[in-house]
Amino acid sequence: MSATKWAKNYSVNVKMDEGPCYKRVVLKLSGEALKGDDGSSISSSVINDIAEEVCQIHERGVEIAIVTGGGNFIRGIEADKLGIDRASADYMGMLATVINGIALQNGLEKKGLFVRLVSAIEIKGVAEPFINRRVHQHLSKGRIVIFTAGTGNPYFTTDTSAALRAIEMNADIFLKATKVDGVYPDDPKKVKNLVKFDRISYDEVISRELKVIDSTAVTLCKENNVLIKVFNITKKGNIIKAITDRTIGTIINGRE
């Protein structure tokens, strides 16, 4: 039975708070999500909290792959400010995602999990190269996989690389962790009294040019019928809830 069919059959027979709604997930963690309140680029307490939740998810039988961003160090789109070309800035950003991946790997291994760090650019001695069949084997054996270095190509965001990995891994859902609790018609930090969408279509996210997720990532998921859930990672326990509670965050799919 495929992972998708398993998840559909399983979710019918459980309450939202009893077990996972999905069998295999790809979780996108932005670099900003790993930052500390003290301004540090990586917070050990944040890493520990994320590792604890991932550990609990793993114990529930969920196969989980994580895509790391690098915005806590550098963003490729900041090339103009840096005075360097965009491609070079993007490669710098890819290396930042590897740094975050190593930190997360360390935190997960301290919880007793078996973790494989995978890089889209070759970094011998640090990470495995991305080989689709091998990564599928890691997940099926209960290992946590951390995808780093984006797609290995400049001009693509880590949102897009997460969508690509979700497609390649036949994931049941792409979980996009942010600092807001879902998708809104405008920026909730700038506009008051906005009502969050519980569900919204791929097409509406694209046509409204909603910035909570990269439009290329949404298009990829639309073309391959991959569910997206946008949720707030700053609230402790929300990674688990994103998988066990259908009311958390916003679902982006083929219809509203």
Element string (H = helix, E = strand): HEHEHHEEHEHEEHHEHE
Secondary-structure class: alpha/beta
Distance between the ends: 28 Å
Instruction: Say which CATH homologous superfamily is assigned.
Output: Acetylglutamate kinase-like
| Residue runs with pLDDT of under 50 for 5 or more positions | 1-17
Task: Give the biggest sheet.
Answer: 9 strands, mixed
Number of domain units: 1
At the first level of CATH, what is the class? Alpha Beta
Classify the fold: give the CATH topology: Carbamate kinase
Mean pLDDT: 89
General description of the model:
It contains 9 helices and 9 strands. It has helices at 3-12, 44-59, 79-82, 86-109, 132-140, 158-168, 202-207, 215-224, 238-244; strands at 24-29, 63-68, 115-119, 128-129, 144-148, 173-178, 199-201, 227-232, 250-253. It has a 9-stranded mixed β-sheet, with helices on both faces. The radius of gyration is 17 Å and the shape is globular.
